[in-house]
Backbone:
């Protein structure tokens, strides 16, 4: 259980720069990374909430429920970690950009319905997780100064890859390659 919580907490920090790793050329401080982490988790919860409202697809709903649950737990754990580390999260350009981009994505998602919504949602989740994996490996780990945070980020990559695989599996259902379409081959 503790290992799972740590992995989820790592997701918070990984997601933090996953949206735009190329924009993160300036080194972020640990307090800035903490702020971005909470922001990123809140954003993905928002996407999941939209999916839970709009989708009727069982696979999409299950994925959205998992993302909402994981990220809600991460926010609680992130608060515990920053409290333990005596870190006050600091707003920054990355978190502001993430919020602005998220509003555009939410607007796009809300404009769709049915299968078009499901595909747009899961396509966004695939892209989001790919960016997160790239960010953890190329931005967050190198920029982390706190040894505990750096260790956590190094341990989170397998969980991120599992989330990506899950999202890609759901995505393949909408591209005609998944189990829902196996009987049509």
Residues:
């Amino acid at each position: 259980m503790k290992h799972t919580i740590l992995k989820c907490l790592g997701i918070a920090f990984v997601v933090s720069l996953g949206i735009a790793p190329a924009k993160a050329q300036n080194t972020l401080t640990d307090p800035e990374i903490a702020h971005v982490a909470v922001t990123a988790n809140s954003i993905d919860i928002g996407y999941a909430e939209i999916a839970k409202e709009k989708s009727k697809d069982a696979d999409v709903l299950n994925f959205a429920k998992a993302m909402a649950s994981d990220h809600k737990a991460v926010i609680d754990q992130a608060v515990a970690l920053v409290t333990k580390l005596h870190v006050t999260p600091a707003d920054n350009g990355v978190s502001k950009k993430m919020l602005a981009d998220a509003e555009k994505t939410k607007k796009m998602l809300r404009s769709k319905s049915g299968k078009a919504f499901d595909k747009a949602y899961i396509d966004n989740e695939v892209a989001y997780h790919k960016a997160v994996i790239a960010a953890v490996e190329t931005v967050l780990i190198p920029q982390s100064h706190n040894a505990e945070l750096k260790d956590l980020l190094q341990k989170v990559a397998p969980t991120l890859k599992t989330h990506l695989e899950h999202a890609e599996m759901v995505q393949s259902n909408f591209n005609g390659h998944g189990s829902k379409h196996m009987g049509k081959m």
Summary: The mean pLDDT is 77. The chain has one domain: 2-15+29-175.
